C-alpha cells in the first residue's frame, strides 16, 4: 500500500527570510527552501522567470548554417518540405516551422510518415519520392533523423539538400546531412547552455534564427516577432507532451506558452479545446495540456494519420478545423478503448504465465495489440509492477514485432536496447522511452538478454520507490491564497513536480467512496482540527475499502490544487499515498 515518504530538509530561519523578503506565504517559502533555493535573488528569479531568459538561438549547434540555407531557399523560391515525426512533439514542430516559412512567403509543404506503414524516423523511400517530385527541394527534418546515417547518405547520393534537426539521443556515429542541428552535439564549443530541449523547442530556435535573418539580421520584423510570440504556444504543447524536464528554457516555454494558448491559439487548436472540455478559456496548466490536448493530438498518429493533426494546427478554414477536432476526439475515444483492452490482456498474460512477471523486466507480445497504443500501456504496467517494460505488437503475416518500451527508476532503457542490439532489427529513443522492432523468432532470446542486462545494471534504490515530500503542513495552512501562490513554482512536470505535502492525524469527515467508470477513482472528505477538505485519488478506487477499515486517524501524502467549478474556487487535495497513524 504505502511507499517510503522522504521529507525534504529546510532551514526555518531561511524560510522566514524568504517569506518576508519575497512577500510570500510560509508554505511557498518552505517549498523553495526545501528545493534548494538558498538565496532570495535566486528564488525571486525562479518565481518570476521571463521570456528574455531564453538563450540566443545562434548558440544552438548547427542552427546558424541551417537558417542561412533555409533563407537562401526562400529567396530562390525553392520548395521546402518539413519532415516531422508523428507524435505531439513532431506535429507541433512541423506546424511551427510550416507557419514560419509560410509567413515568410515560402513554398512549403510537410511530410509525416505513417506510424504503422513506415514507422519512426526518416525513410529512404520517402526521400527518394520527394527527390523524384522536385530534385531542387530542401528537406528539413524536425524531431527525427539523428540516427539516420544511411538515410542522410542516400540524400547526399541523390543530391537532395537535407537539414536534420533533432533532440533524441545520438548514436556513436552521426549522420552527415548538409546541416545537423542538435542541442547536445559532442565537441561543440561552447556547448549549448541547455541540452534538454525537445523537438519543437529546437524548431522554435531555428524559426527564431530564420526570423532574425529576415529582419535586420539581429531582430525579427514586427510581423515575424508576433509570430514567434504566438509560436511559444505550440512550443509549450510539444514540450509538455514530450515529458522533457520543465526547467530552464522548457519551463519558460511552457509558462508563457500557456498564456499564448489562452490568448491567441491557432484556429484548429481552439476547436480542439472545445471538444476536450477546456472551452474558450484554454489550458490553465501543464496538466491540461498533458491530459486533455496532447492525447487527442497523439491519437491521430496512434490510430490514424498524423498528417491530420498537422492540418488541424495549420488550417485557416473554420469548418475544416471543427471537423478535424471532432475527428481527433473520436480517435481519442477509440484509443482509450483499445488501451483498456490491451492493458487487460497484458495483465491476463502475466496471470497465466507468472514467470513473465517475476523477471527483472517485463517483455510481452501479442498478435492483437495495436503498435500505436502499446507505449501508453507499457507506462501503465511500469506503474503497476515497478519494472522496465517492453510490449510488442506482432504482425503474423510478416513475422515481425513492433515494440515500445518504458523505463522504471534510473534504468537507462536505450542503453539496455543497445546491449541487446544483435537481437533487434531497429531501435531508438532515449533514457526513459524507446521504440524497437525485431523478428518474432527473436523475442524469447531478446527477453532473456534484456532481463539479464537489467539484472546486472539496475538496482532498485529507495529513490526509485520513495515519495518526495516538500513539507508536513496542517490542512488549515492550505487556504485558497496559499495554494494559488504555489502555482508560481510551475508549470509543473518532469524535474519540477507540483509541491507534495503530508498531513498527519487526519480524520474522515465522510466514509470514503469510489467514483468514475468502474469505480476507478477514490473520493474522500478529510478533516483536521476544524478544517475540512475534499480529496481525490485517481486510479486508486481500491483504497476506499482499505481506508474505511482503519480505526482512528490516517496520514495522507498529497498535492493541493484549486478546483474550479461554475466560477467557484475551492482547495482540493490530490492524494498520492496514505497510511494509518
Task: Break the fold down into its secondary structure elements and pairings.
Elements: E1 5-7, H1 12-22, H2 26-34, H3 40-47, H4 63-75, E2 79-84, H5 88-103, E3 107-111, H6 124-133, E4 138-142, H7 149-158, E5 161-165, E6 179-181, H8 199-214, H9 222-241, H10 248-263, H11 267-275, H12 286-303, H13 307-314, H14 318-352, H15 354-357, E7 362-366, H16 374-385, E8 389-395, E9 400-406, H17 413-419, E10 426-429, E11 433-439, H18 443-457, H19 462-465, E12 467-469, E13 471-472, H20 480-485, E14 501-508, E15 513-515, E16 521-528, E17 531-537, H21 543-548, E18 554-565, E19 568-580
Parallel strand pairs: 1-12, 2-3, 2-4, 4-5, 5-6, 7-8, 13-14, 17-19
Antiparallel strand pairs: 8-9, 9-11, 10-11, 14-16, 14-18, 15-16, 16-17, 18-19
Helix pairs in contact: 1-2, 4-8, 5-8, 5-9, 5-13, 6-7, 8-9, 9-10, 9-12, 11-14, 12-14, 13-14, 14-16
Describe this structure in words.
It is globular and about 75 Å long. It has three domains: 53-264, inorganic pyrophosphatase (n-terminal core) (Alpha-Beta Complex); 353-464, Roll (Diaminopimelate Epimerase, Chain A, domain 1); 466-580, OB fold (Dihydrolipoamide Acetyltransferase, E2P) (Beta Barrel). With 581 residues, the chain is α/β, with parallel strands linked by helices. 44% of the residues lie in helices and 19% in strands. The protein starts with a strand and ends with a strand. The strands form four sheets. The chain has a five-stranded parallel β-sheet, sandwiched between helices. A five-stranded mixed β-sheet has the order 7-8-9-11-10. It has a five-stranded mixed β-barrel with strand order 14-16-17-19-18. β16 and β17 form a beta hairpin.
